[in-house]
Amino acid sequence: MTEDLVAAKQALRAEIRDRRRNMSAHERDADTAAITEHLKHLVAARGVKKLSCYLATPTEPETRPFLTWAYENNIEVLLPVTRDDGLLDWAIANDTPDENIGLFGLPEPTGELLGPIAINGVDLIIVPASAVDKKGVRMGWGRGYFDKTLGSMGKRPPVYAIVFDGEYVDSLPREVHDQPVTGVVTPSALITF
């Protein structure tokens, strides 16, 4: 990993954070509705009964309407809980709006922790991203939690990242540990690579 690559990724993340902070509420609501519909279609098309997703931060594409739909349709959802050792733990999503604030100020579920290997039983993994390129390279936020999780799975189900339209780009800088995704969900499209 070169210093130039690290600097390029940091600059791109900063630009994306800034753009996300400047989105209007109307844009965000319209994008949430479109992403939710794409996610419903993805789950239905793949016959998913159990998946992992995440609780979006205020600037990320919103996942809560999709999580509500999944709960109402008896789809079991595992949500990540960050740990000090760099691994993700998992808890089952429920119909309560209660959330904890985890490491780094991220929203996390309440409920019993299932351990890092609980994700091995899901049919689909939905991950956050700062950007995704047309080859399936996903750039996260630099902490490596999802890359470690995905890289440790022997048999990995399909993995889709959620980003806003302008964050699906031609190419991204890639490091050795960066785990590719199967597809991307944006407000405009559901794309499988």
Report the structural category. Answer: alpha/beta
Q: Largest beta sheet: what is the strand line-up?
A: 3-2-1-6-9-11-12
Number of strands: 12
Instruction: Write down the domain tally.
Output: 1
Q: What is the CATH domain class?
A: Alpha Beta
The CATH homologous superfamily name equals NagB/RpiA/CoA transferase-like
Helix content: 25-40%
Put simply, the count of helices is 4
- On the 0-100 scale, what is the average pLDDT? 90
Q: Using only CA atoms, what is the Rg?
A: 16 Å
Give a nutshell description of this structure:
This protein has 193 residues and is an alpha/beta fold.
Write up this protein.
With 193 residues, the protein is an alpha/beta fold. The chain has one domain (3-192): Rossmann fold. It contains 4 helices and 12 strands, in the order ααβαβββββββαββββ. Strands 3-2-1-6-9-11-12 form a 7-stranded mixed β-sheet. α2 (25-46) packs parallel to α3. The longest helix has 22 residues, at 25-46. It is globular, with a radius of gyration of 16 Å. The model has no long low-confidence stretch (mean pLDDT 90). Pfam families: 5-FTHF_cyc-lig (PF01812). Substrate binds at residues 55, 60. Its cofactor is Mg(2+). Belongs to the 5-formyltetrahydrofolate cyclo-ligase family. It is an enzyme of class 6 (ligase).
